[in-house]
Amino acid sequence: MIEKKIIGKKEIISILDLELYDLDAKVDTGADSNALHCDHIFVDGDDVVHFTLLDEVHEAYHGKKMQVPLYEMRKIRSSNGSLQDRPSIQVEVEFFGKKYDTVISLTSRADMKYPMLIGRKFIANKFLVDVSQEYLSKKK
């Protein structure tokens, strides 16, 4: 049996390929996939996605313009139930001291409190969520 790490409902994650470190993330078992809050999202003809990072907590990231190869366009049901086409990127992240390859969809999370959402595809078979805990990654 695989030993699963206990994580809290809020954690810290770093997206190494984007040089984004120590982002606050909400762990959401109701969400299928990961999502990153950004703005001005568009895909050019060369299959490159352009976007502007939005994270007022981290001044160095807020307003930072990025361009990354498009992994794929995905149909994702948003929290309000509507179906959206979202660009997604494949990146390496660091979570609880380990590196993982994962896919993150890009979307405006302007109404949300956390710039990153960690979905169940990422946590499946690796982690268990204790919703009474937060930021266990800081305590390791």
Can you walk through the features of this model?
By secondary structure, this protein is mostly beta strands. It has one domain (12-131): Acid Proteases (Cathepsin D, subunit A, domain 1, Beta Barrel), CATH 2.40.70.10. 6% of the residues lie in helices and 54% in strands. The chain has two helices and eleven strands; from the N terminus they run ββββββββββαβα. The longest helix has 4 residues, at 120-123. The protein is globular. The two termini are 22 Å apart. The model has no long low-confidence stretch (mean pLDDT 90).
Task: Explain the layout of strands and helices.
Blueprint: E1 5-8, E2 10-15, E3 20-27, E4 34-43, E5 48-53, E6 65-69, E7 72-77, E8 83-95, E9 98-107, E10 116-118, H1 120-123, E11 127-130, H2 136-139
H-E order: EEEEEEEEEEHEH
Tell me what the CATH architecture is. Answer: Beta Barrel
Residue fraction in strands? over 45%
Low-confidence stretches: none
